[in-house]
Amino acid sequence: MNMQRRFLALATAATALALACGLATAQNYPAKSVTLVVPFAAGGPTDIVARTLAASMSKTLGQSVVVENKAGAGGTLAPAYVAKAAPDGYTFLIHHNGMSTAPALYRKLAYSPMADFEYVSQVVDVPMTLLARKDLPAKNLQELVSYVKAHAGKMNLANAGLGAVSHLCGMLFQKAIGTELTTVPFQGTAPALNALLGGQVDILCDQTTQTTQHIKAGTVKLYGVTTKQRIRALPDAPTLDEGGLKDFEVIVWHGVYAPKGTPPAVIEKFGNALRTALKDPAFVNRMADLGAEIAPESKQTPEGLRTWLQSEISKWGPVIRTAGVYAD
Ligand code: MLT
Q1: CA–CA dist 160, 240 (Å, integer)
Q2: Partners of residue 132 on adjacent β-strands
Q3: Is residue 164 a contact partner of residue 40, using CB atoms and an 8 Å limit?
Q4: Cα–Cα distances in Å, from 125 out to 47, 64, 294, 296?
Q5: pLDDT at 292 over 60
Q6: Residues 71, 156, 226, 309: what is their CA dihedral angle, to the nearest 10 degrees?
Q7: Which of 38, 46, 100, 203 to mutate to test the pocket of ligand 1 (most atoms within 8 A of CB)?
Q8: Number of other residues whose CB lies within 10 A of the CB of residue 174
Q9: Prior bond to 296 cis, omega within 30?
Q10: Residue among 96, 187, 251 whose CB has most ligand 1 atoms within 8 A, to mutate
Q11: Which residues are registered as beta bridge partners of 164?
């Protein structure tokens, strides 16, 4: 055999072996528990979605999907960690809009949302709610705006760090009313909400997946939801648009990612279990009770998530750069 033929034979054998290994990986997958990394504190909105999803997916996969919280740096530590994890199908990331705002917010980012990941699927869309501590005197949005303006410089606003959706929502609120509040960052909106319940902070914009139960229990004051239409889970809650903040809209979308190079057959198997969860009544009903909507089917695919992420990066980049807000 001449050199060229020998090389071709070797290359063919290597391809066959790689294919066989890929198939074996997909057939036996998962052979152990799978980790789903959450970029914020346990008990918060991202964590609630992740744990409900993990419980449903574990039933289909026959192995546990274990949620791991890697909170910090406004939700950028977790993607940096997953981007460098082994691409073997045992580490995934769940993240929200922060995946699209971080490239503009952070001039130095340890990962690229468009280059360092494989895309699995979107999961749910979640409205946010504008809340204040229970004893804040303002009875509605108009009164809140007047109260904040009258107490300018004395009021604070909690969030989950620069890059969190609570930060984005709070930023849009301050811009809409033309008044700045003092920002108090936490490692997630679970500790932020605890601070609101304890009266240590005044205002918080947070997702219904965490806030619905507190709104219903009356332990926080609600000033409105961030969707254009009222939501089924909180039918009496006015929208912020109705309350006078025209066109105010923030919807939190969540997607699942894997490290770049994770085998396509594994992504498909994990993705299929995820799509099964999105039809599982246990998941669907819990999400509906918490105001979350299952992502449309067109976004329940790797390509659906990838194109959506790209469009969100293109949307938020100029907004953030024009506002001149940087995290670093
Ligand atoms: C956020 O504000 O980005 C999230 O609500 C954070 C969280 O899940 O705690």
Answers
A1: 21
A2: 203, 221
A3: yes
A4: 14, 25, 6, 9
A5: yes
A6: -40
A7: 46
A8: 16
A9: no
A10: 96
A11: 162
Determine the Cα–Cα distance for residues 159 and 155; give it in Å rounded to an integer: 14
The residues, any chain, with a CB within 8 Å of residue 178's CB and separated by 6 or more, are: none
**Sign of the CA dihedral with 324 first, then 172, 248, and 307 last:** positive
DSSP string, 221-237: EEEEESSSS--TTSTTP
Q: Which residues pair with 182 in a beta bridge?
A: 156
Using most ligand atoms within 8 A of CB, pick from 131, 166, 167, 204 the residue to mutate for ligand 1: 166
Q: What confidence score (pLDDT) does residue 321 get?
A: 80
Residue 247 has what DSSP assignment?
T
Range 65-79 burial, b when 16+ CB lie within 10 A, else e: bebebbbbbbbbbbb
Q: Token pair of 20, please?
A: 């066989």
Read off the tokens for 37. 């990394």
Give 123's DSSP letter. Answer: E
What is the rounded (10 degree) CA torsion for 149, 229, 45, 93?
-120
Each residue's pLDDT tens digit, 61-78: 999 999 999 999 999 999
Residue 56 near residue 206, CB atoms below 8 Å = no
Q: How far is the CA of 4 from the centre of ligand 1 (A)?
A: 57
Q: How many CB atoms lie within 10 A of CB 224?
A: 25
Pocket of ligand 1 (CB under 6 A): 40-41, 44-46, 75, 98, 160, 164-166, 188-190, 206-207
Model pTM above 0.85: yes
What is the amino acid identity at position 271?
G
